[in-house]
User: Fold this.
Amino acid sequence: MFISSQNTAPSFRGFTLVMPAVAVGNVGQLAVDLVVSTLNMSRVGFIHTDCLIPMAGNNPYTTCKEDAEELHTPAEVYTATELKLAVLQIRAPIIQKKSKKFRQLLVSWIKTSGFSRTVVLSSSHAYQRDDQQLQGTPLRYLVTPSLLKGSADAFKELGWREMERVPAFPGLADADAEPCLCIPGGGITKGLYSDSCAEDLPLAVLLLFCSEGDNIPDAFTLVNHVNDWLHLLDNPSKEHNKWKIPTSWSLLFGSGIPPALF
Assistant:
C-alpha cells in the first residue's frame, strides 16, 4: 500500500516509474541511488508492506546536518515532477515466501497510479550465462507487448540486445523443448515481467550480467544505459562527475578498520 508523506496524495498519471529489483550485486538499487541523488528528487511517500524485511535508517541522500537524521524506510517513492519521473527505491530483501504477494502489490499499485511505463533495473549472475550470452555487451533488455507497441522504433534505434531464451535443460538434445526465460540471481525480475505481460502493463526490464563484489562500476554502466533511453542527463558517460554519488555510499564496505587494532 502506498502512503503519501504529503498532505495531498501525489498524482503519478503519465509519469515514468523507475524501480530496482533486489538482485545480485544490488546493481539496480545502486543505479537508482544515482538517479535520486543526481536529480535531487523529492520523497513523496513510501510503500507499507509486510513483504520486506523491516528496517529503518538515516537519510541516504543527506546534503546537510538538518536532514541527516530523517528516518527512512525499506521502500520509498521519489519524484522529479518536471521530468514526469517517479522512482521506487527498495532497500531491503523481499521475504522469500511473500515474493508473489509483493509482485501482486506492485502490479496493483502501478495500475492504479496510472504510470505511462515502468522501467525495472536488475542484474543476473554472470557465471550462469550460456554461450550466446557470453558474446558482446553484458547488458540486456526485456519489454512487454504493451510497451513494445509504442516503443519498438526506439529500441531498434538504440540497438540493444534482448535477453535470450535458453534451453530449460542445457546439454540435453531435446528438439521439442522450447527455450525459456531464465534470470538467475534476478530476484523478482522474471516474475514481475511475466505478471506485467499477463496484466498488459507497459514495462521494460534493463539488466546487467555481473558478479558480487564492488558493483559501483556496474551501477554506472547500468544508469548510463538507462539514460540512453530516458535522457535524464546529457552525455553523463563523457563526464563521470555528472552522476552525483550519495553520501550513503561512503559506508558501502563498512566503516573501515579501527586503528585501535594496530
Remarks:
- The two ends are 50 Å apart (CA to CA).
- Strands lie at 2-4, 16-20, 42-47, 75-80, 85-90, 117-125, 139-143, 203-210.
- The chain has a mean pLDDT of 89.
- The longest strand covers residues 117-125.
